[in-house]
TrEMBL record:
Coiled-coil ranges (or none): none
Protein's recorded name: DNA primase/polymerase bifunctional N-terminal domain-containing protein
Record-annotated DNA primase/polymerase bifunctional N-terminal domain positions: 29-185
GO molecular function annotations of the record: hydrolase activity
Family matches, as InterPro entries: DNA_primase/pol_bifunc_N, ORF904-like_C, P-loop_NTPase
Alphabetical keyword list: Hydrolase
Length: 847
């Protein structure tokens, strides 16, 4: 192995602690820009010397040299991720051995984020040149914080978290070496390390903010013990069979490697009990602790207490953090989601434990009921998301409010197999075989099994609906998802009334817990708080301040007034009522950004959740008398986009007016009619569709021009990752933008006279081209002066001249003109002068 000394001369390094020229390995690292190479015990990676790792300031070269000068004999060498220059450094630690699949997982992630040139960059490993298990080093912008994990079996080694054992260290008889591809190399100079691609930088920052959630209150040992005793079912009981099976290999893995396995083992045990409800956590923790200290006696007794406490509290507090930030669901709230509030605090844990105790008692009582009654009652108890829905003119149905779907026979079977029968088994193991309680449980289990095998368990369906209703969970069909002010977000709702009342409050102030009475079944699929944290961090970081979505909108609509009107139109369309009777048209050539914005809307509001798309044909034909499942489904969403129209498409004016009021639809093979007045239409087209003029349409129509070049729109979007819209920060930024638009639409309105210049011009041109008669009617001006008048025959002549329509019959033309005056509210201006029909108080400007 070769290296360079401080004078730049090439020297050959061997496997001993001092080279032939007397240059020690730690000095070589310092020469190459690695600031903190520190001593590790001979033959081991742990423990590091105090003062060289963790969340500390940069260690000076003087302190590093003093540490090495004090050491005698052979030592391994550790690297803290601290270097000279304008960058920081991180290492991706890939585990790919035994059951570890780090490289496989990393390659799958590359499909999303882009390739990493792993074969062309320096890596460190003791497993040989052919092993993918190694640490891969990258330069990154200074001052950023990173996730601790990239994906399963791949961790991020960084300045304040972990360190790297490197050449010439030996562990278990294997020496660490540096490689690039198939070649062994000298210690790499930090200047030669590659810069991590931006997509990966963004991802690892985002991951840091999403995955590493800290609880609002940190627990010490006493509080951690008390919290676990309340939230881990059967805390002090003997370990379950599942616990015993999982615990055995973890105890074996601690032999000779206690430090590396303790954290994962405690993390597994705490989550297995708290999240999966497995009894025996106290005994499992004690077994892990005893094994850890037995191993520590031989290797690092003096730091064992601190090390154990840190890992134990880390497992408890990280689990609490995940629960608090809704990244994990504890077992005790599985059947009572409302108990999640405050669950990570001792008071909330006590409340959840009491509720679970009460539920257990109800389950036990149900088990003693006759089996045909016990099974539906257990379903009702164990599935609080089920409600009975009273349907007009048909039988009651059971709705799963968690997913917004009506329960089918197959769903009932799945509930029996995955929820009810495991609970029956859990009940039976409390009692001795052939006891009265065991026999009752066996009878209920037998009934559940028989119902699973039934072709159409009609009686079970009816009995379950009754049991759910008896527990007070019932709605009429018209109430489900009917509140126009509410949008579901997981177990919370976005309250649009809160947006109106407090438009400057921000997303978190507009959220509140979802309540049963809200009758909300739909949900946006995004993590608002994670996205907000990521956006907050973006503001403080050296990377681009704007999201991709924000930049794209500015490119698509560079005129600020037009862009704000687009924001108001989309925000208004989120509301569950089209009170202003608006009909939006996005008009412009293909590739001008219409579809790009729709893609962002669908990503945030969800396809067929709160937004939908239909064809022009479906729009024109949709009605309750003509079944169309797609059209009917669109009526249940807040906003619907109608895709490009064909050349020469004619839209009846009445269809446009109907689209802004109440519409009905019917699905195939169904007599149920869906009636909705809260769906707002946006028509996307690159051609003007024709419709006969109607002043009612004119007042409703708002045409937003899209004129940007296709190339500019394409270049404004990221090329490295087609899934960029799915990033939480992108979705949350766009949702906030939409809600701000809603607030503006409510405070400022969307009246025609307030359209910004480009929208007003586009609307006027669109109407004129869609119906040439509009040019003629715009020549009429009401003066209100009784001496002014326009003869009907003069209007007919001018109409033919302007529109070029010479075939229209006199009567039809007269009716058209009279209808226009009537629509304008001036039918009473009709009069006669010299026995000629006129409209008094009007002039006709033919100049």
């Amino acid at each position: 192995m070769t290296s360079n000394n401080h004078e730049g001369e090439e020297v050959t390094m061997n496997d001993y602690t001092i080279s032939e020229q007397g240059v020690k390995p730690f000095e070589q690292y310092i020469f190459k820009g690695w600031v903190t190479p520190f001593p590790l015990p001979c033959g081991s990676k742990f423990p590091p010397r105090t003062g060289f790792t963790g969340d500390i300031e940069t260690v000076s070269e003087e302190v590093t040299r003093e540490a090495w000068d004090r050491e005698m004999g052979d030592f391994n060498l550790g690297l803290r991720m601290d270097i000279t220059g304008d960058y920081d450094v991180i290492s991706l630690d890939v585990d790919e051995y035994r059951d570890k699949k780090g490289m496989q997982n990393l390659v799958e992630l590359m499909d999303e984020l882009g390739e990493l040139p792993l074969k062309a960059i320096p890596r460190s490993t003791r497993r040989g040149v052919d092993s993918p298990a190694a640490q891969y080093f990258f330069l990154v912008p200074r001052g950023l914080k990173w996730a601790s994990k990239v994906c399963a079996d791949v961790e991020v080694i960084q300045k304040n978290h972990r360190y790297s054992a490197v050449w010439p260290s030996e562990v278990e008889g294997e020496m660490y070496r540096w490689y690039i591809g198939d070649e062994e190399i000298e210690i790499p100079n930090v200047k030669d390390l590659p810069v991590l691609p931006q997509a990966w930088i963004n991802y690892l920052q985002r991951g840091n903010l999403i995955k590493r959630h800290a609880p609002s209150e940190y627990f010490g040992n006493t509080e951690a013990d008390e919290w676990l005793s309340k939230v881990a079912p059967g805390w002090a009981d003997a370990p379950s069979a599942g616990f015993l099976t999982g615990l055995e290999p973890k105890l074996e893995a601690m032999v000779g490697n206690a430090h590396d396995t303790l954290n994962d083992s405690l993390w597994w045990a705490v989550r297995y009990a708290v999240l999966d409800g497995q009894p025996g956590l106290k005994a499992a923790i004690e077994a892990l602790k005893a094994k850890f200290f037995a191993e520590a006696e031989r290797d690092y007794k003096e730091t064992a207490e601190t090390e154990y406490a840190r890992n134990y509290l880390g497992a408890v507090n990280k689990t609490r953090g995940d629960i608090e930030h809704k990244k994990a669901t504890p077992f005790l709230v599985k059947y009572s989601p409302a108990l999640l509030t405050g669950f990570t605090l001792l008071t909330g844990a006590q409340k959840a434990a009491k509720a679970h105790e009460d539920l257990t008692e109800k389950i036990n009582r149900s088990m003693r009921m006759p089996a045909p009654l016990a099974v539906p009652r257990l379903i009702a108890l164990l599935c609080p998301e089920l409600v009975t829905v009273r349907n007009s003119g048909s039988e009651d149905s059971i709705l799963n409010m968690a997913v917004g779907e009506t329960l089918q026979y197959g769903d009932l079977r799945e509930i029996l197999e995955k929820t009810v029968m495991p609970e029956i088994h859990r009940y039976r193991i409390q009692f001795e075989d052939d006891s009265d309680e065991d026999k009752a449980g066996k009878a209920v289990l037998s009934k559940a099994l028989a119902l699973c095998e039934a072709n159409r368990p009609v009686a079970l369906f009816e009995n379950t609906a009754n049991a759910v209703r008896d527990m007070g969970r019932k709605f009429t069909a018209s109430k489900i998802d009917a509140n126009p002010y509410l949008l579901g977000v997981g177990d919370e709702v976005l309250d649009l009334q809160a947006v109106i009342d407090n438009p400057d409050g921000g997303l978190e102030s507009w959220l509140r817990p979802r309540e049963y009475e809200d009758a909300v079944t739909k949900s946006l699929t995004l993590d608002i708080r994670a996205g907000l944290k990521s956006l907050e961090y973006r503001e403080q970081s050296p990377i681009a301040k704007e999201t991709h979505t924000e930049r794209l909108l500015k490119v698509i609509q560079p005129d600020e007034d037009t862009r704000q009107f687009l924001q108001k139109a989309l925000g208004y369309s989120m509301f569950g009522k089209n009170k202003a009777h608006k009909f939006f048209v996005w008009f412009g050539p293909g590739g001008s950004g219409k579809g790009s914005i729709v893609d962002s809307v669908m990503s945030v509001l969800g396809e067929d959740v709160y937004a939908s798309q239909i064809t022009p044909e479906q729009f024109k034909k949709g009605s309750a008398s003509k079944p169309d499942p797609e059209y009917t489904k669109s009526l249940t969403t807040r906003m619907t986009f109608v895709n490009e129209t064909d050349e020469g498409t004619k839209i009846d004016a009445s269809a446009i007016k109907r689209a802004t009021e109440s519409r009905s639809g019917r699905a195939l093979h169904s007599n149920n009619v869906v009636k909705q007045d809260g769906n707002t239409i946006t028509f996307m087209t690159n051609r003007v569709f024709s419709f006969e003029h109607d002043s009612g349409v004119e007042r409703r129509l708002a045409v937003i021009p899209f004129t940007q070049a296709k190339k500019a729109v394409k270049e404004a979007q990221p090329h490295i990752n087609s899934e960029w819209r799915e990033h939480e920060e992108e979705k949350v930024w766009f949702l906030n933008w939409l809600l701000e638009g809603f607030a503006l639409s409510m405070s400022e309105g969307l009246e025609q006279e307030d359209y910004p210049p480009l929208v007003a011009q586009a609307t006027a041109r669109f109407i004129a081209e869609a119906d040439p008669s509009m040019v003629f009617f715009q020549m009429l001006e009401r003066t209100g002066d009784p001496d002014d008048y326009v003869r009907t025959e003069d209007m007919a002549r001018s109409y033919r001249d302007v529109t070029g329509d010479l075939t229209i019959a006199e009567k039809a033309l007269s009716m058209k003109i009279n209808r226009w005056f009537r629509d304008q509210g001036h039918a009473d201006d009709k009069d006669r002068v010299n026995d000629k029909r006129v409209y008094r108080g009007w002039t006709l400007n033919e100049e």
